[in-house]
Structure to design on (1348 residues):
């Protein structure tokens, strides 16, 4: 197949960039689609040939990822998010407006091929909700009017200016904030090496390489009480110490930048405004486990962020902070940024590794854990962007200083994205252990329009929801666990008194059913069943027995699925059924007066 | 396999001892406790996807999948608690949400694992009221149909196609509840059509084009027998209704091949019902073969045979046997030739030089011949020539399984880039016909070879010398003198070396073992070995000739040249194989053929006696690795008779006319009893055979002065069958013939 010189060069480079060829598969598909608009049979054959795969291996991989299309999409692919944060702020109104304005439905293309429309899952713009992407451009804080204006400009052949940075990342600092890893945000050119170095960037790397041993780095991280910021909260130092010291195999460091937990959009600004902090953290992690190759797996939707990080990596190579003989210490470390293609499940560490190996993002059987058998079967540590970004501070200031920021066993600061019904949605860096109520009212400005707070998703939609009475608690891993929920990935969504919890349960399940990888029965069939039942129930066709059925199904998914996605779907559902059962009963009697419910009956 | 340390665990309060590393699911099976599973399949990679095998393990916070949990000392497992029962019930309920309840019209109904599990562990009512996901059924090939809604996504098919077959024709499409299995060519399959995916499917998602909608499983009888095609001797279970074969598979995983069958074993049974099948005896009247009664046919045949013998004597008559007929029939045929007609003019179409191998090995033969199981467990395998994937599918499967399960090292010497190359540690490409030269170099560093080739051979030799055991597997490329060189090389390897000669047809080995050879008696003793001859003379009450007879090609040549007057052919097509084109039966006065179809040879015969196939008779066959298995009569056909019957009938007719002695064996079993006594290698214990297993022969051979000898070019010749051909018989396997892959 004839490829453009640009694509051909890109392919050549990708094919030789990875320890195993097949890893190039998903990026190749993405870049091919960017240029041609879809993945054709010829392209499949071409890529298969280049990677020594057979067609079905390419086909089954691409079929897994929602951003990859086998049929041509419009020149402008309009992707509107209706996930929880956007839904609360009118995401469905924007979608309805789009359907009318473009005269097409979900996954349809206009006859002239200019526009196509897709209702998508969380795109990581929760603090700028409602939001959409046109191709890779983010447009946030949408109103129907703003939406129309964007479409009009596109129609006129212009490219409306996308959001310069993640909405909600830049704001006046609240006194309760302790900016540490976000401290460079808002500085001019903060993504550039020059600025980073001026602010003390790569000082920690120098210290780690010149003054510390791998063991002492791990010790320092252990002292900091840093726990994984991706959601599970596993102690980072301990994770690193699991890497066998005597393995003859290569070791890898992976940064999990597949941020897709609904409500969460903190990694995006961290990478767009301070990529060097992350790179520095990764090299230090590499040194700690004696690895010489790192990967940043970034979700496919964050293409502009990928470009920013990629440029930063190039700068770091030029400055001797990456590559051979880093800072003259003899330590080598290479770093590659790798694009995903739209799959929430790839945020699960082992599924991410499968995906990075160019396969369907199915999770792996554990044990063995990645620290022993990870990427390409080699010892691997995999950490969230925020976790790795915290490492330079820890090395620079010492683990103890970092730990002192938070509560015992919950070291440091945490980026919290707060979205939904708050006056000041945004991303705030606060010490772990701050009171949640205080945070919502004093940092995020409380619930607007004088309304009462009804519910809070504390850390991404996988977490059990809390009622207004349950939020007077410190925000750290252990206190949230005690309250029956989780700190999760820091994606807080606040709901006011007018929110329909039936609709909330429906939308949450819609997401997990869409993202279930299909590997195991309870998650695959359970989420799909629950989605259908909740949709029917919300649409006014509920039966009394459905209420118990929904709760029962969710409970029987819990703890029995292959990976945590099933639990993530079950937990919020169980909490909603338990805490707002009355709203379900009201729905049966036709008494649900909530705005969002009434407007949507029959809409989908 | 190294001896593993034993550990003890408790399952449902029973103490169980298992080797270290055993999975809990296997440990439960040892004590007969069923832990249900869909995705767990012994021999394939682990998945833990179906979650049916969740069990309670003391001290574990939640239920554990028994299929991935390795048993450890002191572990306490419960497989039948309320929590476990409830988990299974919910899994099944989840599964049934999108699974259509079309069991009444589903091919799998009655033998469906999902049906059985719901019966045993499922809920008594259904709570799912939503709409199911609908998708039309897809036809992927004439043999494979896919019904997506029925699919429970256990991924067995994908794994067996990839890991087991190394074909990788199946993948998974879409995601979540919409996931489906996809074929490799968009809307259809292009593959080896082995049908493994169909049989491994626990539900009715993948169904067989040859079987679908024909019957219900409980209406059939199941007859375990041996595949009628290649020489590997796979056990196949024929599903029979009203004496007609409707299906072949091996779902009980018994026999040497466990669940493996190739396209021929699984679908190549339709020749039994082919409309061209000869169903009545035919006798030539003028230029036409006309149907006659059995009495007339037998009389004509006997009379003419007697006349030919009386006129030309023993040197004017020849016998060509089959490499598909049973051991008993082969044994009878050579007795017929040697005892009744006093001639050693008896041979068959040889596709492997077993006699050469046995002679080269001499006294070592008994423990140097490789069985299929030993092939699977070999540390290293060297394959010279042949293309096992196409010509010996079970051999290829055993090699692949060994690589997968034990890390077997595979080395290839071949003049073609055969498929096994993908998994080989080393592939030595040689020119066609260079095999013996390469062996000479390997055995004695003799001869001039290209330096690049020598370099590869040095490496190969070093690699083989480092192994504790080596299986040498070879095709028809190695015969006669090359065989002697091969054994010379193999004997020099420091470890244990075993040999496997690859032939083409279902009872090639049996034909050799039973003495369908002009110079060998049953058991390979040379015809001039007086002691061996004497034993058979006593047994048969006759005097045997010590002079080697004509080989099959020589007999055809002699017939076409007018030197041979009468030819008796059983289940073979020698005029097509060895004859000069256009010369037909030559100057033969008499040609009698026992055959299923009117082959080129049968068409020009004087008498055609319609014979039954391997699927329509009892007896034994011996596969290429020397393992004996029972043939069991599965189908009944009107007209044809077994070759055993035919030879018996003729022997009686001839005795009546004063020639030879009638055969008084009442059943093939009686012949087998005689073989067990007369051929020491066949004196195997019956226990394994009777349960449908295989018993390895241990060839006991003494050279008694007969040194290895070369064979003329062309005597040993492979039919070069592919996966979709089966010598002459393949022409009447309609289903295989119709596959597009058969013609690429």
């Amino acid at each position: 197949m004839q490829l453009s010189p640009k694509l051909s060069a890109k392919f050549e480079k990708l094919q030789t960039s990875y320890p195993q060829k097949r890893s190039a598969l998903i990026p190749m598909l993405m870049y091919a689609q960017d240029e041609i608009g879809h993945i054709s049979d010829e392209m499949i054959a071409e890529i298969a040939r280049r990677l020594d795969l057979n067609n079905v291996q390419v086909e089954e991989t691409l079929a897994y990822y929602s951003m990859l299309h086998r049929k041509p999409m419009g020149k402008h692919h309009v992707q509107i998010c209706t996930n929880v944060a956007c839904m609360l702020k009118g995401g469905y109104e924007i979608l309805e407006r789009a359907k009318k304005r473009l005269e097409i439905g979900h996954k349809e293309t206009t006859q002239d091929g200019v526009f196509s429309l897709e209702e998508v899952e969380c795109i990581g713009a929760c603090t700028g909700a409602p939001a959409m992407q046109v191709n890779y451009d983010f447009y946030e804080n949408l109103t129907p009017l703003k939406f129309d204006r964007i479409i009009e400009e596109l129609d006129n052949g212009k490219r409306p200016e996308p959001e310069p940075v993640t909405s909600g990342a830049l704001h006046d600092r609240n006194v309760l904030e302790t900016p540490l890893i976000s401290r460079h945000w808002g500085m001019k050119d903060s993504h550039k090496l020059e600025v980073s170095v001026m602010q003390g960037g790569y000082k920690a790397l120098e210290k780690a390489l010149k003054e510390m041993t791998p063991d002492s780095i791990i010790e320092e991280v252990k002292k900091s009480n840093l726990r994984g910021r991706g959601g599970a909260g596993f102690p980072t130092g301990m994770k690193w110490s699991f890497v066998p010291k005597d393995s003859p195999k290569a070791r890898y460091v992976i940064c999990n930048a597949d941020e897709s937990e609904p409500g969460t959009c903190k990694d995006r600004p961290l990478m767009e405004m301070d990529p060097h902090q992350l790179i520095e953290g990764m090299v230090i992690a590499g040194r700690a486990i004696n690895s010489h190759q790192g990967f940043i797996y970034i979700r496919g939707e964050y293409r502009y962020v990928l470009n920013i990080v990629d440029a930063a990596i190039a700068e770091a190579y030029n400055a001797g902070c990456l590559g051979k003989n880093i800072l003259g210490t003899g330590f080598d470390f290479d770093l590659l940024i790798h694009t995903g293609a739209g799959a929430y499940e790839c945020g699960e560490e082992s599924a991410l590794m499968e995906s990075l190996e160019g396969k369907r993002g199915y999770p792996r059987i554990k044990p063995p854990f990645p620290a022993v058998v990870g990427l390409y079967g080699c010892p691997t540590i995999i950490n969230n962007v925020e976790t790795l970004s915290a490492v330079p501070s820890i090395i620079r200031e010492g683990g103890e200083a970092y730990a002192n920021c938070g509560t015992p066993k919950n070291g440091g600061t945490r980026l919290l994205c707060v979205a939904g019904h708050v006056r000041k949605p945004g991303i705030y860096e606060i010490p772990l252990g701050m009171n949640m109520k205080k945070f919502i009212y004093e940092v995020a400005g409380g619930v607007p329009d004088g309304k009462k707070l009804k519910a809070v998703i504390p850390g991404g939609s996988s977490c059990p929801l809390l009622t207004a009475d349950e939020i007077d608690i410190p925000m750290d891993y252990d206190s949230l666990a005690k309250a029956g929920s989780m700190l999760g990935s820091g994606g807080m969504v606040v709901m006011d008194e007018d929110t329909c919890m039936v609709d909330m349960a429906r939308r949450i399940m819609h997401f997990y059913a869409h993202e279930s990888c299909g590997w195991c029965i309870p998650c695959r069939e359970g989420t799909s069943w629950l989605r259908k039942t909740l949709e029917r129930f919300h649409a006014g066709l509920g039966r009394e027995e459905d209420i118990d059925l929904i709760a029962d199904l969710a409970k029987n998914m819990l703890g029995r699925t292959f990976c945590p996605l099933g639990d993530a779907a079950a937990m919020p559902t169980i909490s909603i059924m338990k805490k707002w059962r009355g709203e379900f009963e009201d729905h049966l009697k036709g008494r649900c007066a909530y705005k969002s419910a009434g407007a949507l009956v029959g809409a989908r | 396999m190294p001896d593993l340390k034993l550990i003890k665990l408790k399952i449902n309060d029973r103490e169980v001892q298992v080797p270290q590393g055993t999975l809990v699911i296997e440990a439960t099976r040892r004590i007969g406790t069923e832990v249900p599973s869909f995705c767990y399949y012994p021999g394939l990679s682990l998945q833990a996807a179906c979650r049916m095998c969740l069990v309670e393990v003391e001290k574990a916070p939640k239920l554990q999948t028994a299929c991935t949990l390795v048993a450890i000392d002191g572990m306490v497992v419960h497989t039948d608690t309320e929590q476990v029962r409830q988990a299974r019930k919910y899994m099944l309920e989840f599964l049934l949400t999108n699974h259509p309840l079309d069991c009444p019209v589903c091919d799998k109904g009655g033998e469906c694992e999902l049906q059985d599990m719901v019966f045993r562990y499922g809920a008594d009512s259904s709570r799912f009221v939503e709409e199911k996901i609908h998708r039309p059924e897809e036809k992927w090939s004439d043999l494979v149909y896919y019904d997506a809604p029925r699919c429970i996504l256990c991924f067995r098919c994908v794994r067996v196609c990839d890991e087991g077959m190394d074909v990788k024709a199946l993948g998974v499409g879409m995601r979540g509840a919409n996931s489906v299995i996809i074929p490799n060519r968009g809307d259809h399959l292009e593959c080896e059509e082995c049908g493994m995916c169909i049989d491994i499917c626990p539900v009715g998602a993948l169904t067989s084009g040859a079987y679908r909608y024909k019957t219900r499983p409980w209406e059939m009888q199941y007859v375990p027998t041996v595949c009628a095609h290649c020489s590997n001797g796979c056990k196949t279970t024929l599903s029979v209704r009203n004496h007609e074969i409707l299906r072949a598979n091996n779902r009980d995983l018994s026999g040497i091949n466990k669940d493996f069958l190739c396209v021929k074993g699984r679908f190549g049974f339709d020749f039994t019902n082919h409309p061209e099948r000869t169903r009545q005896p035919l006798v030539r009247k003028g230029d036409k073969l006309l149907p006659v009664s059995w009495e007339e046919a037998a009389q004509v045949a006997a009379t003419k045979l007697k006349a030919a013998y009386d006129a030309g004597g023993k040197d004017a008559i020849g016998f060509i046997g089959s490499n598909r007929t049973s051991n008993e029939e082969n044994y009878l045929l050579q007795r017929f030739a040697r005892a009744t007609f006093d001639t050693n003019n008896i041979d068959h179409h040889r596709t492997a030089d077993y006699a050469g191998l046995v002679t080269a090995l001499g006294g070592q033969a008994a423990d140097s011949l490789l069985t299929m199981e030993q092939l699977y467990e070999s540390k290293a395998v060297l394959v010279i020539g042949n293309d096992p994937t196409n010509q010996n599918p079970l051999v290829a499967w055993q090699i692949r399984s060994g690589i997968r399960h034990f890390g077997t090292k595979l080395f290839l010497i071949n003049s073609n880039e055969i498929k096994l190359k993908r998994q080989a540690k080393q592939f030595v490409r040689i020119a066609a016909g260079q095999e013996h030269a390469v062996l000479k170099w390997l055995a004695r560093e003799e001869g001039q070879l290209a330096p690049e080739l020598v370099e590869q051979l040095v490496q190969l030799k070093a690699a083989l010398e480092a192994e504790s055991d080596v299986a040498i597997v070879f095709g028809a490329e190695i015969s006669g003198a090359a065989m002697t060189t091969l054994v010379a090389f193999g004997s020099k390897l420091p470890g244990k070396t075993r040999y496997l000669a690859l032939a083409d047809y279902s009872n090639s080995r049996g034909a050799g073992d039973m003495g369908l050879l002009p110079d060998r008696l049953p058991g390979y003793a040379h015809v001039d070995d007086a002691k061996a001859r004497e034993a058979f003379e006593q047994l048969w009450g006759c005097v045997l000739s010590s002079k080697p007879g004509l080989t099959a090609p020589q007999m055809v040549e002699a017939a076409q040249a007018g030197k041979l007057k009468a030819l008796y052919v059983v289940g073979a097509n020698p005029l097509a194989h060895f004859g000069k084109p256009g010369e037909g039966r030559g100057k033969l006065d008499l040609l009698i053929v026992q055959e299923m179809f009117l082959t080129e040879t049968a068409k020009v015969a004087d008498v055609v006696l319609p014979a039954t196939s391997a699927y329509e008779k009892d007896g034994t066959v011996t596969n290429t690795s020397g393992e004996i298995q029972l043939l069991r009569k599965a189908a009944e056909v009107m007209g044809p008779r077994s070759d055993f019957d035919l030879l018996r009938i003729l022997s009686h007719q001839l005795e009546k006319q004063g020639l030879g002695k009638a055969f008084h064996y009442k059943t093939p079993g009686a012949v087998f009893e005689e073989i067990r006594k007369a051929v020491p290698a066949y004196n195997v214990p019956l226990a394994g055979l009777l349960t449908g297993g295989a018993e390895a022969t241990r060839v006991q051979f003494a050279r008694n002065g007969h040194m290895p000898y070369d064979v003329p070019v062309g005597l040993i010749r492979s039919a070069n069958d592919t996966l979709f051909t089966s010598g002459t018989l393949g022409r009447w396997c309609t289903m295989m013939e119709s596959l597009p892959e058969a013609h690429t």
Remarks:
- Confidence is low (pLDDT under 50) at residues 597-604 of chain A.
- The first helix of chain A runs from residue 5 to 15.
